[in-house]
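Dear Dr. L.,

I hope this message finds you well. Following up on our conversation about the binding site, I have prepared a predicted three-dimensional model of the protein together with magnesium ion. For your records, I am including the exact sequence and ligand specification that went into the calculation, followed by the structure tokens. Please feel free to forward this to your student if that is useful.
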Amino acid sequence: MEFETNLAPYAARSTASRGRRFAEPAPASRTEFQRDRDRIIHSTAFRRLEYKTQVFVNHEGDLFRTRLTHSIEVAQIARSIARNLRLNEDLVEAISLAHDLGHTPFGHAGQEALNDCMKDYGGFEHNLQSLRVVDELEEHYGAFDGLNLMFETREGILKHCSVANARKLGDVGQRFLDRKQPTLEAQLANLADEIAYNNHDIDDGLRSGLLTMAQLDEVDFYARHRTEVARNYPGISGRRAIHETIRRMINALIVDLITASRARIDAAKLESFDDVREAPPLITFSDEMNREAAQLKRFLRQNLYQHYQVNRMTSKARRIIRELFEAFMLEPRLLPPDYQVAASTEGSVHRQARKVADYIAGMTDRYAMREHRRLFTVEEI
Ligand code: MG
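The resulting structure of the complex is given below.
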């Protein structure tokens, strides 16, 4: 049965893929990239995303985005753009749903703290960890570790990578050494991520009361859509005004990305899928939209990500991660048996540190807080 119909010549195809690390019989009722998506959804790391957050910690409110709802929003945005550009929706969905699997608890504060703890042991980077989750850490199949995903899905998950790390990764890191581009689907998932978080962080920022509508008016992109909403619906206010504004912003970003990318793809005169790798990045916003998005990002950094109430939580988060790491390194016997490395084996300190990082990175926000209490609070064992 032919599943991948109506794709552009420069779209990724299961049939032209570089395949899986361990050969498997072709699926009968779906494409290889659909199979990847299905494996990601059934993974343990995917379910953990429900209790991990980016800006707000999981217990702070029921309506804030979690990494799970964020990933679903990214997949939705990416798929709708992919269909417009006749790219492979299944691949773009698989990459989008997997892109945050390696994140630590407590978002960027957690990642920075763990990277700091790991500085003598090769560091910690959430992108690399996402790849590690799907390549090694998931225990789902009898024949191999990890999910054994397709090359293009793995490559899309590995959004950034240092040259030193790329050398260790083999084929999937090669493009960072050759300075070549990944598939258009990977490029698209990356920008869909940006569209999703810029907009939902405004929504969550307003919901939390850390941002106000008046304050947001200094962001041109927001102010323009907000004015349009007020003109179309006189008297509109509250949640409805916020949602109506944000949905227009998401739509404007999507339309801009489609238009600008289509123009670049046409100008590049791509004849085949392989041309994508040699070309400059082709999935892009217009210059004008990039300027507007930069202003919005600056605003969010100054007013939301560095808000003193957010700082208080991220400071606590850093302390939790650091103290957990130190306790486990000092006394590896506190770790669950699966994460203990025999002290007599070669390079055991490095390997133990990596296992501790895997254990901590896999924790949800609330699990990390509970584990911290279990280790450090005398009254509560
Ligand atoms: Mg993301």
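In brief: Residues 70, 99-100, 193, 197 surround magnesium ion (CB under 6 Å).

With kind regards,
A. P.
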